[in-house]
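Re: [ENG-882] Designed sequences occasionally contain unexpected residues at chain ends

Forwarding the minimal case from QA. Structure tokens:
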């Protein structure tokens, strides 16, 4: 068991090095994404969109100047995707097509359900307003994602990130939030349950967990 860290610096909304955040995302979270330069560039763009969105909070954990983990709280994934498409549509479509090559079935489903409606809505004016992505429930926040570098896992970094995130939500008068986790991600699932999340429902391979903030 790693020793708890004394000199961990956890801070809200620093938004410093988004390429470093994208790097952690790509390395430790998205094993299904093609891990190349273009994917990292698009992920960096995604976090830039998050930075420009006033509802999104990024909380980072640094240890002696090294980024060792982060947590992102978002209020509407469809809105963020829409903004990403609006600003960087050619990169987003290129990424979707490359993922289609790697994981055709899963990607085709995502493409038809999320990406095509967003393209129609944002790029083709005659469709505007006709085919919106599912609306976000106002006032709900999603934890998406939390990542801690493996050698810092078990050190208390993740609970600290979560605590800072919850302080942020409370400061906005929110009383609950939610997240999605894949069934096979047992470490993350265990972490969430010990942190007070409860299973709200299961959709195939994915659990939806919610937590009420005391
Ligand atoms: C999810 C994550 C942030 C949690 O941080 P962490 O430092 O690992 O969390 P903790 O060590 O405090 O808690 C993990 C718990 O799972 C337990 N655990 C470890 N491996 C496990 C396994 N294979 N199955 C079940 N539980 C496991 C640990 O013992 C610990 O529980 P304990 O404190 O009761 O002993 C981190 O593991 C991570 O970054 N994972 C990769 C990215 C990821 O999957 N993010 C979540 C996306 S939904």
């Amino acid at each position: 068991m790693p020793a708890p860290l004394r000199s961990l610096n956890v801070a809200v909304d620093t938004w410093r090095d988004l390429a470093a955040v994208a790097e952690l995302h790509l390395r430790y979270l998205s094993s299904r994404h093609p891990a190349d330069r273009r994917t990292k560039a698009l992920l960096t763009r995604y976090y830039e969109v998050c930075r420009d969105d006033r509802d999104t909070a990024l909380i980072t954990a640094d240890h002696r100047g090294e980024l060792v983990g982060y947590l992102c709280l978002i209020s509407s994934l469809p809105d963020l995707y829409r903004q990403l498409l609006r600003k960087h549509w050619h990169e987003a479509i290129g990424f979707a097509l490359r993922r289609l090559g790697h994981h055709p079935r899963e990607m085709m489903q995502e493409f038809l359900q999320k990406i095509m409606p967003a393209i129609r809505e944002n790029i083709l004016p005659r469709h505007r307003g006709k085919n919106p992505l599912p609306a976000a429930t106002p006032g709900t926040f999603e934890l998406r994602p939390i990542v801690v570098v493996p050698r810092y896992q078990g050190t208390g970094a993740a609970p600290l990130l979560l605590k800072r995130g919850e302080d942020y939500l409370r400061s906005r008068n929110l009383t609950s939030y939610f997240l999605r986790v894949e069934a096979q991600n047992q470490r993350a699932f265990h972490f969430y349950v010990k942190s007070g999340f409860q299973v709200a429902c299961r959709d195939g391979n994915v659990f939806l967990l919610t937590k009420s903030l005391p």
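QA comment: On inspection the terminal residues look reasonable. Residues 28-29, 145-148, 153-154, 158-159, 181, 185-188, 190-191, 194 surround coenzyme A (CB under 6 Å). Proposing we downgrade this to a documentation issue.
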